[in-house]
Structures
1.
Amino acid sequence: MNAAKNQAELIREISGVHPLKCMKCGKCSAVCPAFDEMDIKPHQFVSYVQSGEIEALAASVSLGKCLSCFACVERCPRDVKPGKLIDAARQLVIRQRGNSYLSADEIPQLLDDEMPQQLLVSAFRRYRR
């Protein structure tokens, strides 16, 4: 098995998602609030994982643009959960780069009174694994 296939399998394992259930309806992308800023849309992301094109995903602007709001997860009629795939790919990239996680003591100094609560929830979802 080549490295891209191993990485695609790892993304599936981290996310707990079965991308082969996707019927390419595009409803996930239609509801995505960050759609206009993404180079790889949520429905395309699922296709990339299916085909093992992990290097393109790792270099994608979409990893940073996804809000982890999971609107795509709620909208999917087949329960594919594209947002969870995006989060899993983000985790894979972080693990490959060897980045360390924040400790609980470092978090308060990073917070701002005007920071939206959704950002905190999204960050928790992203980095709790």
2.
Amino acid sequence: MKKSSLFCALASLLLFCSCSDNDNEYSLDYRCYFLFDTEVHNVSVIKNALNPLASGIFVYVSTEPRNGVRYVISELNDGKTKGEDALTTEKESRITYALGAYNGLIIGYSSLGNGLYAFDHQCPNCMATSNLYRYPLAWANNGQWVYCKNCKRSYDLNNNGYPNTDGQKLIRYRVEYNGHILIVHN
């Protein structure tokens, strides 16, 4: 093996194995994989939350199988705008979707310029003290926060999901969007 090839292989291995401080920012506790093609679903409600120029707009996303077809169910943080998208392309049909702790994600751009976020739709503090996963969050503060009816905590969606009181911040997943494909994953 040539020295330059060996150097490139070692450099790639080091880059692959290195850890960053942001690695702890993302949860591995609950399986998460969601892929959504905004060109196929070009009128989807989800697209509203994927515009960096319209920061502060968030969308709740879940999936539901019906009659052999998987649907993506979405609701904007205005609490009124809702949508459904049937995942019917061959690529979409082959994917195994997993949307965190209990089939729900919150996705959107921070109004503080912190980038695109993807959070779990369940209260992390209630899940930590119970073996149940059903602690869904509701929109609050004009959709800029989410609220847990069980523990009464609110979480700031624009500020990394921090709670208004003591406790854990929202569970966060990696999110990528290239203007065409949205991927949320561990």
3.
Amino acid sequence: MDRLIYLDNAATTKTAPEVVEAMLPYFTENYGNPSSVYGFAAKNKEAVTKQREEIAKVLGVLPKEIYFTAGGSEADNWALKAAAECCGAKGNHIITTKIEHHAILHTAQYLEKRGFEVTYLDVDEDGVVDLDGLRAAIRPTTILISVMFANNEIGTLQPIREIGEIAKEKGILFHTDAVQAFGQVPISADECHIDMLSASGHKLNGPKGIGFLYIRTGVKIRSFVHGGAQERKRRAGTENVPGIIGIGTAVKRAGDTMAERAKKETELRDYLIGRVLNEIPYTKLNGHPKKRLPNNANFSFRFVEGESLLIMLDMKGICASSGSACTSGSLDPSHVLLAIGLPHEIAHGSLRLTLSDETTKEEIDYVVDCLKEIVSHLREMSPLYEDFVKKNQA
């Protein structure tokens, strides 16, 4: 394989060189435990505080409202389970959507087994939540609304500000899984009335194994990990100092370059979408055509099996996916694509391409040229496609 073109940045991103450089001293030189009292360790406590401030600045919140976790999935689990435990006396009803990440869906199912009731909202064909449907789903016993900021598979951006306004008006806690959106699009926790927000380092050129949960001051949820007084007694365990340095550096980098990256990625994304839709027949773009992440393009190719498509792209040196990396071993079609109304046979032929700020137009052209060749080849082997062509020629 002569070349590698990485277009699976929704699964994970390359750790930026400046992030790695910032982290390295905290493995071998500044290795003190931030909870210790001597000066050598106190420097690490100051470093952790600085990264908390950098993250809070990008989100427009207070540093004390940022709680470090092991990643987005932990933050999602914490938000739902702790809110359910804390607010159980008020009610037992939670609202989410059918297209959430499985960190939310599986946690919601866990809570259902423990007596909570969960409403899973439908979305339209673009993957957007209907606000009237949300209002209608609210009950006197509703304690939490959790809607992702941007979908990890189809890239659709939700009307988060409007959802936050509804939640605030009704006095309901509002959580958003912003793992895909944070660092990609501007987010103001105050303007969107967000009470809790999940994010992860490795989605924005930071390291794996580190994330955070934003918890608005005044939100009464309990600790998720017990055993120590770290993270202001809400998340026990010795702080992952190198990881925290990494995510803080990555967040600052993402905030400083967001406008420039979004412009470049949006232009390349639209160029990619235009070429694919114009040059490969019987192809559908999944997700909202405009209200989507700058780097996300998700297609369904009729009469094509997604797994075969990925294997053949890999042989060409192209890294892509058919959906969430967390379900890559599943033979079932994406729950997101089924929720937006795609039939099983079309959902199986889907491809997600997610760009980075290093992606070039030359790479996009190569990918589309390969896609045209591969899709044509796979369709030639499909009896369904052969029958379809004969029927349309008759």
